[in-house]
Structure to design on (490 residues):
């Protein structure tokens, strides 16, 4: 390779020194770039794949594009008079076409233009690696090495990738990950999904709705095990009604697909076996840090960087290295990564201007919500929305709590009007010493839109007494808040 100190972009020749260098041009890296540019800092953004990252092309966007038609049909079938209008099945070709529009046919030119023209940053395409303190080298697609240096900060926003188990036969089985699960345009007759977390249950929902016969294999005793126990129970009931077979408490021990063609055979630790046309592994994530030069600054390759609340990496002298998004393992969710970028961007701007950091809890430079108020929506049928701590998590953290439950289908008129025979449940977890919410969970059709109100209550530490004056509109599902408060007050 030849070496060069500059790279050409549509903005003209680029300098080799910038205020901030960002590795990764997904949503998280783009928000960091926007915040740094808003502070008047120069920014170089390095991207080795598509500008827009995993979320835009293989994660949140395509998965929700696939799921929405499936859930829309399910919602219509729950309403007398509407169900009679649903006379056919979901049309896969139309669903795939819709997804392709939302991922812009995997063409990142629009997002690349936004980084350069919209944000005024310099985009360097290639594989970026740390090359010592405040330095980055980029191996470009045209076989050059571009060397960059940062005056104030280097930000790692390289995301995560599927962590596949070391199973006999996995290579010849050619399993799907979230990428094939969201970019494939052929419906397998039989699909095995391994993993009962958010990716696993969403992919089982989507492909079942598209026409696959789905078997969901889960090593835990329930679905979505990090949430309230009733969440997995209601999602499991939804799977039973829609025809998804759920096998709980079992682990895949072997895969086989002789010659890499034909069906895949899965062997489970209970001695049973079954075949599927494809198998999708949703068994966790690993950080994309194996080849980004962490060793050049004293960190371990392949590790999750340890960060403080401003997302600055601990153990690196000078405080110039930051890690945001999936990479720091605080909360593997796009919206939390973007929140971290707003926090880190403000911290870098303050650092560049010589100002002290406001890193106290809930301060301008502290990502406190990563531990206190993380919202997550899971687009299964029924939907799930949760924020903050579950009752068990709150108790383990030493809080004195009371959990209050409401049956949405029995106690909320808005839910009954939303869907005939509505089935759902809600819980709020109250800190008895402060009478504020530590967490809230909702399960049922349409509940994802309740999530931000719960997030405001938890993050704002709104007292129960003040929530009593937040009057929900009749007749909406949000009336659940009144029912929860009534149940708490008795």
């Amino acid at each position: 390779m030849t070496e060069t100190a500059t790279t050409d972009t549509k903005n003209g020749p680029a300098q080799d020194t910038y205020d901030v260098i960002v590795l990764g041009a997904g949503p998280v890296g783009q928000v960091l770039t926007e915040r740094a540019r808003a502070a008047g800092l120069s920014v170089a953004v390095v991207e080795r794949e598509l500008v827009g990252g995993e979320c835009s092309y293989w994660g949140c966007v395509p998965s929700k594009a696939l799921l929405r038609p499936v859930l829309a049909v399910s919602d219509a079938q729950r309403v007398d008079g509407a169900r009679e209008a649903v006379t056919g099945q979901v049309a896969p070709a139309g669903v795939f076409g819709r997804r392709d529009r939302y991922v812009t046919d995997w063409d990142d030119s629009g997002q690349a233009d936004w980084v350069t023209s919209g944000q005024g940053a310099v985009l360097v395409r290639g594989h970026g690696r740390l090359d010592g303190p405040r330095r980055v080298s980029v191996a470009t697609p045209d076989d050059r090495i571009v060397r960059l240096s940062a005056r104030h900060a280097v930000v790692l926003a390289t995301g995560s990738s599927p962590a596949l188990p070391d199973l006999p036969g996995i290579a010849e089985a050619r399993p799907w990950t979230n990428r094939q699960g969201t970019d494939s345009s052929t419906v397998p007759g039989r699909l095995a999904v391994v993993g009962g977390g958010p990716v696993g249950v969403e992919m089982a929902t989507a492909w079942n709705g598209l026409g696959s016969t789905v078997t969901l294999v889960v090593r835990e005793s329930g679905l979505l095990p990090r949430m309230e126990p009733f969440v997995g129970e209601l999602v499991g009931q939804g799977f039973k009604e829609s025809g998804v077979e759920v096998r709980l408490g079992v682990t895949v021990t072997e895969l086989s697909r002789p010659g890499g063609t034909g069906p895949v055979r899965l062997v489970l630790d209970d001695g049973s076996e079954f075949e599927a046309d494809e198998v999708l592994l949703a068994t966790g994530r690993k950080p994309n840090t194996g080849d980004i030069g962490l060793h050049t600054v004293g960190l371990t390759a392949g590790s999750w960087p340890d960060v403080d609340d401003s997302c600055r990496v601990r153990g690196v002298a000078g405080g110039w290295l930051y890690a945001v998004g999936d990479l720091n393992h605080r909360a593997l969710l796009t919206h939390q990564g973007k929140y971290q970028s707003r926090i880190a961007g403000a911290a870098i701007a303050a650092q560049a201007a010589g100002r002290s950091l406001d890193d106290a809890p809930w301060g301008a430079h502290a990502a406190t919500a990563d531990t206190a108020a993380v919202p997550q929506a899971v687009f299964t049928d029924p939907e799930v929305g949760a924020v903050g701590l579950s009752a068990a998590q709150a108790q383990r953290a030493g809080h004195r709590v009371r959990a209050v439950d409401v049956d949405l289908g029995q106690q909320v008129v808005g839910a009954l009007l939303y869907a005939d025979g509505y089935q759902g449940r809600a819980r709020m977890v109250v800190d008895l010493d402060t009478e504020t919410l530590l967490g809230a969970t909702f399960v049922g059709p349409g509940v994802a839109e309740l999530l931000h109100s719960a997030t405001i209550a938890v993050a704002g530490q709104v007292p129960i007494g003040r929530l009593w004056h937040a009057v929900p509109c009749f007749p909406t599902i949000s009336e659940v808040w009144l029912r929860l408060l009534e149940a708490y007050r008795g």
About this structure: Residues 2-52+108-160+287-369 form a domain with the FAD/NAD(P)-binding domain fold (CATH 3.50.50.60). The mean pLDDT is 95. The chain is about 30% helix and 25% strand.
